[in-house]
Amino acid sequence: MTCDRLHFGTSRPSTLPRRRTTDFATVSAKVTRNSTINVARVLHSVPSRLIGQKIEVRLFDDRLECFLGPDPVMCMTRVRTDRARGHAIDYHHLIGTLRRKPQALRYLVYREALFPRAAYARAWAALDAALPQRDACRTMVGLLVLASAREAIEIALAERLDAILDAGKLPDIAKLEEEFVSKPGPSSDIRERHG
């Protein structure tokens, strides 16, 4: 066969559609009381304000976009998994629930995915091995609450936890709060005395 017989390049290309085609799939997901949704065999955490809501999730190749009615509520990186179930957990979404029920940390299926950095997982292992269950959970949740204040604190606290654990000690939440929580300055509502 020759190119002449096949007529390559003689026909004009068809015009492109006027609108972009849909490059995502849409699913509905109900937000559980644990502030999670299940999408494509992956458990994702979402902000706690969405608990009980039914949200529309657009599954793109690289991300998920979540909508409550017409309003976008969040966008997150898409996590893919093979046969097993996966987890995409942001501890910021769950910290409020854990503050109210710190013992829930012990039995979370996705506990390892909850920790923002390896130092927090190390701290949990050390606390869990050395302290009674209740104290270990309370201390670990306290560390996560402290870390959730700002990313800079999360990073610095992780470094501090590594140093504490490398020294063979356990984290003391009261001392770490004192070290990392900024102290309020003098009140700006000082009245001048006249006369």
Characterise this structure.
It contains 8 helices and 7 strands, in the order αβββββββααααααα. It is an alpha+beta fold. Helices cover 38% and strands 18% of the residues. The strands form 2 sheets. A 4-stranded antiparallel sheet has the order 1-4-5-6, with no helix packed on it. A hairpin with a 2-residue loop joins strand 5 and strand 6.
Give me the secondary-structure topology.
Elements: H1 3-6, E1 25-30, E2 36-39, E3 42-45, E4 54-59, E5 63-68, E6 71-77, E7 86-88, H2 91-100, H3 104-107, H4 111-114, H5 118-130, H6 133-147, H7 151-166, H8 173-180
Parallel strand pairs: 3-7
Antiparallel strand pairs: 1-4, 2-3, 4-5, 5-6
Helix pairs in contact: 2-6, 5-6, 5-7, 6-7, 6-8
Key phrases:
single chain, 195 residues, alpha+beta, 4-stranded antiparallel sheet, 3-stranded mixed sheet, 7 strands, 18% strand
Strand content: 15-25%
Q: Quick one: overall form?
A: elongated
Structural class computed from helices and strand pairing:
alpha+beta
Q: Which range best describes the helical content: under 10%, 10-25%, 25-40%, 40-55%, 55-70% or over 70%?
A: 25-40%
Are there runs of 5+ residues with pLDDT below 50, and where? Answer: 185-195
Radius of gyration: 25 Å
SSE string, helices as H and strands as E: HEEEEEEEHHHHHHH
What is the number of helices?
A: 8
Query: What's the overall average pLDDT, rounded?
Result: 87
The strand count comes to 7
What composes the largest sheet? 4 strands, antiparallel
Largest sheet: spatial strand order = 1-4-5-6
Whole-Å distance between the termini?
107 Å
